[in-house]
Amino acid sequence: MALPCYSAQAHGGKIISLDDPAVVKDLAALNGTGGNAYVGYVLSTMLPDGSPTGYGTLRRVTQRVAHDGAVTVKVTPWRDGQDTGQTITRALAIGDNPTVVAALAATGSVFQVKWELSAFDAPARLGSGEVTIVDRRSQR
User: Fold this and answer.
1) For 31-92, where are the alpha helices, taking DSSP H only?
2) What is the C-alpha radius of gyration for the chain, rounded to an integer number of angstroms?
3) All domains in the chain, ordered by first residue
């Protein structure tokens, strides 16, 4: 559920809703026209891996992306505070399954995941997610 946020226009006395879901571009006019498309992203906090050796492989991430229209989802794993360069992109159309699954192979000690949402024409929201981290063997 969105929290309503309003602002008052300095000249003209209009009250503007700042979280209008119909406006999906930055710097759009008051009526929602014009503006520039933007890429919204979130970088997760450090993922708990529970690995006894402190070293493992991020193998899979699953994320719910609720979308009311088309959206492009880009998943990038981070290891030890650095972008791995491994990127998986999924294009979702209206009515597609909102669960995005990405198979990865990032080895390190501390992991994060960056989710980018672009090319959306309606509201898109990140929901619950899940990660799979495989512990690295310390002996043979």
Assistant:
1) none
2) 19
3) 1-36 (no CATH), 39-135 (2.60.120.260)
- CA distances 106 to 27, 89, 118, Å, are 37, 16, 24
CA distances to 8, 27, 37, 52, 114 from 45, rounded to whole Å, are 35, 29, 26, 20, 10
Percent helix, strand and coil across the chain, each rounded to 5?
A: 0, 50, 50
Q: Does residue 24 carry a pLDDT above 50?
A: yes
**If you average pLDDT over every residue of the chain, what do you get?**
84
Instruction: At 2, list the tokens.
Output: 């969105």
CA distances 83 to 79, 99, 101, 114, Å, are 7, 23, 19, 9
What is the C-alpha to C-alpha distance for residues 112 and 83, in angstroms, rounded to an integer?
9
Question: What pLDDT is attached to residue 12?
Answer: 74
Beta partners for residue 112, in sequence order: 78
pTM score, two decimals?
0.77
Q: Compute CA distances 4 → 20, 83, 100, 130, 135, whole Å.
A: 9, 34, 28, 29, 43
Question: Quick one: pLDDT at residue 1?
Answer: 37
